[in-house]
Every structure is written in structure tokens, then in C-alpha cells.
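Complex 177.
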Amino acid sequence: MGAEIARERRRPPVSEPSPSPPEATPGEPPAKKAVAPPPFLLDFFPLEDAKQTRLSPFFDHLRAGRLTTTRCRRDGRMSWPPRVVCPDCHTSELDWVDLPAAGRIYAFSAVLMGAPLGMEADVPFVVGLVEMDGVPFRLFGRIVGTPWETCRIGMPVRPEPYDLGDGRVFYRFRTVT
Ligand SMILES: [Zn+2]
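Predicted structure with zinc ion bound:
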């Protein structure tokens, strides 16, 4: 008699639904399949807010259409990327200065495969070094506006802000034709 009861308890009721995933709770709409963002540590520029970085003016300027960097108030050294202290004299007395609104392709390459995480759909795309008059360094960045097959060294480009779509902004270069 006791064994019979135990068997009865082990048998699942016929009406019981098969196990469901947690997101399919009865009475609630199924959870939308979200595209996962890239892992945090693979995101090179996750923090643009003033609470997170002293370089936040760079991103604020970019949102306003200005590509800027820092220049030392003591020795006049212009740095790239922007700094919070001068690499030469170590002062934190730096000014934000505008970079020229135009430059030229110094060197470039096309990414045809093996794109960074999150950029697979952009392939093929162009990255390169841009030189600007009066600027003692070259800037690396994405170059848009001309297919890689017709990009040429010396081609004029202008920097532009690029909205990353999640509240952040970055810069890139667009060819001027
Ligand atoms: Zn300095």
C-alpha cells in the first residue's frame, strides 16, 4: 500500500505542462531577444562622462562638432590623445584647443576581414592616419565617404563626430571630394 502511494506521487499529472523557460511565464509576454553589447573590457571607450573621466570635455566638444585636444599652458606642447597632465613637464595646467577642420590621408588600410567585435557588418571599411597642417602628430581613425578601392594617400578629409547610438560619441574622418 505504501509503495503504491509512492509510485502514484512520482507519476506526473497528465495535465501538467511541460517545463518552460523562465522568460515564458504564463500571463507575461515572452522576453525580447536583445542583442548583447560587446563585453565591457573589449570596449575601448566606455566612459565619457565627467564623473568617470577628466577627459570628458573632449567628448563634449565632439558632440558640439569640435575635434579638440590638450595643449600645455607652460611649454605649449600639444598632445594626442588629450591628456590630463603634460607628458613633458607634468603640469595639469592644460588648455583645450581645436584641431584643424581639415587634413589629408597620410596612410590607410582596408579592413576586409577579422573586424573588431561589433563591427563585422561594416566590413569592408577603411582606417588610416590623417595629417593636419600645424599639428605635430597624426591621428588614427576610421575613414568614410570613399570606398577603399578608390582611397588614395593625400586625399583630403575632415573630422566629424560619430554618434555611437548609445549616448556616446567618437570621431571619424570623411573624405572631401
Ligand atoms: Zn608641459
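The chain has two domains: 46-99, 100-177.
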